[in-house]
């Protein structure tokens, strides 16, 4: 051949030919052509190395990176080498000299090399059946780097590359409701109705029978003093007004004290018993409280009511930390906000339920009010029956207990499918990250900037929920209506209407939280409450000038609850679980829930005394506080919608060490 005499290499097709020739020499040396391949091997080893370093390093590298590795891999794993070897024995030797002469002419001018290689790759796939290897490299590099790190143990052995395509496509189809099934809905109901129902029911149940309890306190005092008269000749038969008010305030506020204690124990219960186990153990406090509630009148002891309110407060404090944690950890990422809102939705439903049962025509009577209080045992019984059917949190099993098989079984049960490898891979990544800091202490979460920033945000959102004035409206809504000039019956009906609107708007927020985001709804709710409180303050000042102002106050109180339900009512509960990784979540939830109950205790204990001193001007305090909460939320609170825990953690690391505002 003329090319061999001049010592010219086999052109730009030489990299592929050279490697194929090497395969021929090693695999079947007797069958290789004796004339040209032997010369080409020796000349290519010497001259192609020099040309790669001088004339065309960029071209050779790009070809090797794009075509060569993919072809070699596919040839080794498939049947392509057989086809190309046979074709080279027949077609390649006579065609190579013509191609080499043409390529040699195109190498010398500097502009031709761009056109030369662009034309020939188009010709070769057209003639040769090399389209299959050319297409396969485009598919495999996309699948291998994405699937191997997460599904490496299963996909490499099963080689289920085609079945991996439907999973990513499904994740983008229906982001709103994908992953919701009957089993997950059952687990949500078992956790939420057994815990959040306790919280809301005991929050609103004391509103209606409060006057009946005050009358009963006088009867109890009279009976006790009658027994004492026979022994010590005491003359006091009834409590005075201040003493009765003090006992009632203790009954109301001791509930918040128990909530503070229960909230601070959230981390211990979550780590010691698990999320599901902690909820089950917590029902002991509810049953004890129900027993004291049911027999307090028979025993003529208001101390039993105080003890019962304390125990049910401990129960509700633990529920407020454990239930959102469990719901957040069993929820898919795309439903995390909606499922987190379920807790507040059940709270609002139970508040309305307690207000309806407290009507004088149902259980709000002199004889039946202890039963009204003792009905708090029903949610505990419901949870004790239903929750054992549900699995423990998969994240707790994998990250805290290091039980991968149990975690996969739990996740398979919750998703109602065996295709959970992608989610398991994400959980394994979180578990590996948690191993770097296996335990987060109270000192570390307050001193580490990466953890302190989300902790401050969580605490401020909890304070904003309570000091926005919502507890003042719920605890004392009837008295607010009476102060506005409404009758007793009209005030009670207005309170029930307020609870109904609270439920409806919480249902709306369940959908809106995934559409508009957490931060947007939080700001909208706080701003609406700010405007509403200003108008309510004006109505209370001017209620004596016109009768229609009293009815306007009804609308303003209901609208206040509507704005509260839009964002501040539900978002703080599950925002805590979104801001922290698994290792820091229990400690952070304990602190945040304890702060929430502390703020509720301050409002419940201080609202009435302050109102007696300054009257309607007490709402100006909420105006100032709401303004501060709006400013903080706008400046510091991040949007967590659709973000994974790793992304949120990286964002706080950047803000802590990079100087960027959250």
Account of the protein in words:
The structure is a single chain. This protein has helices at residues 2-6, 14-27, 36-54, 57-66, 68-77, 80-90, 92-107, 112-127, 131-158, 166-171, 182-204, 210-232, 241-264, 266-272, 274-295, 302-330, 336-357, 369-374, 377-386, 394-400, 404-415, 421-436, 442-447, 449-467, 470-475, 477-483, 488-516, 518-542, 548-566, 571-579, 585-614, 618-636, 645-657. 40% of the residues are buried. Helix 5 packs across helix 9. By secondary structure, the protein is an all-alpha fold. 78% of the residues lie in helices and 0% in strands. Residues 1-175 and 225-236 have low confidence and may be disordered. The chain is built from 33 helices and no strands.
Q: Label the structural class.
A: mainly alpha
Q: What proportion of the residues is helical, as a percent range?
A: over 70%
Strand content: under 5%
User: How many β strands by DSSP?
Assistant: 0
Write a concise synopsis of the structure shown.
78% of the residues lie in helices and 0% in strands.
Supply the key terms.
662 residues, 78% helix, mainly alpha, 33 helices
List the helices and strands and how they pair.
Blueprint: H1 2-6, H2 14-27, H3 36-54, H4 57-66, H5 68-77, H6 80-90, H7 92-107, H8 112-127, H9 131-158, H10 166-171, H11 182-204, H12 210-232, H13 241-264, H14 266-272, H15 274-295, H16 302-330, H17 336-357, H18 369-374, H19 377-386, H20 394-400, H21 404-415, H22 421-436, H23 442-447, H24 449-467, H25 470-475, H26 477-483, H27 488-516, H28 518-542, H29 548-566, H30 571-579, H31 585-614, H32 618-636, H33 645-657
Helix pairs in contact: 2-3, 5-9, 11-16, 11-17, 11-19, 13-16, 13-31, 14-15, 14-16, 14-31, 15-16, 15-19, 16-17, 16-30, 16-31, 17-27, 17-30, 20-21, 20-22, 24-30, 24-31, 24-32, 24-33, 26-27, 27-28, 27-29, 28-29, 28-32, 30-31
């Amino acid at each position: 051949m003329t090319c061999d005499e001049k010592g010219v290499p086999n052109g730009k097709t030489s990299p592929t030919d050279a490697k194929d020739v090497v395969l021929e020499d090693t695999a079947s040396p007797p069958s290789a052509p004796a004339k040209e391949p032997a010369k080409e091997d020796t000349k290519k080893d010497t001259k192609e190395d020099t040309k790669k370093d001088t004339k065309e390093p960029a071209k050779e590298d790009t070809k090797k990176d794009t075509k060569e590795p993919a072809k070699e891999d596919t040839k080794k794993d498939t049947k392509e080498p057989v086809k190309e070897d046979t074709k080279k024995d027949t077609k390649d030797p006579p065609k190579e000299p013509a191609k080499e002469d043409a390529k040699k002419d195109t190498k010398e001018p500097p502009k031709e090399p761009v056109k030369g290689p662009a034309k020939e790759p188009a010709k070769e796939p057209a003639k040769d059946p090399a389209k299959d290897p050319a297409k396969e490299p485009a598919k495999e590099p996309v699948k291998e780097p994405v699937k191997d790190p997460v599904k490496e143990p299963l996909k490499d052995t099963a080689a289920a590359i085609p079945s991996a395509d439907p999973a990513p496509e499904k994740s983008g189809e229906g982001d709103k409701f994908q992953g919701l099934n009957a089993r997950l809905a059952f687990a949500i109901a078992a956790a939420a109705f057994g815990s959040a129902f306790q919280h809301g029911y005991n929050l609103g149940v004391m509103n209606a029978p409060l006057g009946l309890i005050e009358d009963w306190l006088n009867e109890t005092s009279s009976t006790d003093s009658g027994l004492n008269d026979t022994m010590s000749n005491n003359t006091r038969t009834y409590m005075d007004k201040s003493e009765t008010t003090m006992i009632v305030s203790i009954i109301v506020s001791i509930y918040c004290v128990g909530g503070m204690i229960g909230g601070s124990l959230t981390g211990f219960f979550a780590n010691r018993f698990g999320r599901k186990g902690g909820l089950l153990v917590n029902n002991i406090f509810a049953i004890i409280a129900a027993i004291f509630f049911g027999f307090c009148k028979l025993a003529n002891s208001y101390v039993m009511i105080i003890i019962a309110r304390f125990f049910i407060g401990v129960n509700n404090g633990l529920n407020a930390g454990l239930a959102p944690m469990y719901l957040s950890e069993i929820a898919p990422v795309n439903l995390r906000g909606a499922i987190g809102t379920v807790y507040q939705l059940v709270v609002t439903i139970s508040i309305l339920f307690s207000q309806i049962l407290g009507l004088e025509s149902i259980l709000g009577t002199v004889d039946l009010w202890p039963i009204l209080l003792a009905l708090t045992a029903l949610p505990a019984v419901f949870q004790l029956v239903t929750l054992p059917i549900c699995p423990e949190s998969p994240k707790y099993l994998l990250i805290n207990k290091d039980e991968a098989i149990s975690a996969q079984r739990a996740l398979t049960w919750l998703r109602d499918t065996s295709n959970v490898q992608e989610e398991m891979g994400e959980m394994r990544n979180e578990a590996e990250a948690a191993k770097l800091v296996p335990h987060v202490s109270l000192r570390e979460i307050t001193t580490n900037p990466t953890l302190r920033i989300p902790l401050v945000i969580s605490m401020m959102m909890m304070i904003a929920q309570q000091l926005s004035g919502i507890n003042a409206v719920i605890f004392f809504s009837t008295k607010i209506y009476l102060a506005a000039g409404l009758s007793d019956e009209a005030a009670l009906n207005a309170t029930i209407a307020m609870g109904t609107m609270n439920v409806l708007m919480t249902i709306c927020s369940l959908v809106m939280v995934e559409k508009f985001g957490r931060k947007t709804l939080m700001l909208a709710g706080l701003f609406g409450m700010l405007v509403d409180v200003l108008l309510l303050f004006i109505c209370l000042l001017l209620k004596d000038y016109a009768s229609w102002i009293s009815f306007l106050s009804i609308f303003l109180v209901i609208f206040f609850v509507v704005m509260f339900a839009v964002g501040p009512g539900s978002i703080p509960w599950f925002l805590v679980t979104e801001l922290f990784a698994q290792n820091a979540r229990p400690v952070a939830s304990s602190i945040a829930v304890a702060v929430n109950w502390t703020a509720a205790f301050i409002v419940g204990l201080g609202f009435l005394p302050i109102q007696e001193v300054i009257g309607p001007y007490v709402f100006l305090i909420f105006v100032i506080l709401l303004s501060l909460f709006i400013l903080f939320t706008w400046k510091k609170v991040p949007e967590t919608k659709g973000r994974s825990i790793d992304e949120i953690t990286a964002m706080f690391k950047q803000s802590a060490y990079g100087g960027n505002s959250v």
